[in-house]
Amino acid sequence: MLARWQRIEPLAGVVFVVLAVIALFTAGGEDFLADPSQLADYYLDDSGRIIAGEIIGGFAIFAFFWFVGAVRNRLRVSETPEGGLPALAFGGGIAAATLVLVANAATMAGAFRADEDGSIDPAAAAALNDLSSVIVGIAAPVALAVFVASTGIVSIATGVLPRWLGWLSLLLALGLLIPVISWIFWLPFGVWVLAVSVLLYFRPGEDALRTEPVTTM
């Protein structure tokens, strides 16, 4: 039973992407540094939709936590020491998921306040939206870059995932580290999660590894 679960647990990444897309389209959103009065109207007019979307987003993050754990388990092979890159990948993934939860909580707090009081101060609405935007657009991508880059390096070194994906992972991590435009790379990150999920499912355990040591990077 445990072995069967370990085989399918990488597919938590697919669940994450599906739920994240649903949450995004449900909750909608406003631009970073949008007009405060516009943001207040958003929280007031769409409070129910925002709350529903963030709840779905919470389930998405739950699945992502599981996906991060699955990736760490597959990266922990004989060539990678316990405290090395698998641990770094795990830490980056957990940090990113936690940051996104904080961003979701900030957005949901504004929706709850607007729904409860029938209004929300524009300055408060702007502060909550800006906080959420900075976390999702700048802080979380840095943590994701650690997760993606560590996974990529282990893949290049051991073959636990295809080496072409390892090199693409490094490019994606670089994009996630670029301030201001890092939010653009959330879509490629979703595609990356889908690819890693499916590949780990079809390349279980030690069967994914090459038998000869790597001599060049």
Brief overview, please?
The protein is mostly helical and 217 residues long. 75% of the residues lie in helices and 0% in strands.
List the total number of helices.
8
Q: What is the CA–CA distance across the termini?
A: 38 Å
Please give the number of β-strands: 0
Specify the biggest β-sheet. none
Helical percentage: over 70%
Overall shape: it is: elongated
What oligomeric state do these chains adopt? single chain
Tell me the series of helices and strands, N- to C-terminal.
HHHHHHHH
Residue stretches low in confidence (pLDDT < 50, at least 5 long) are: 207-217
Give the overall average pLDDT. 87
Strand content: under 5%
Class by SSE composition:
mainly alpha
C-alpha-based Rg, rounded: 19 Å
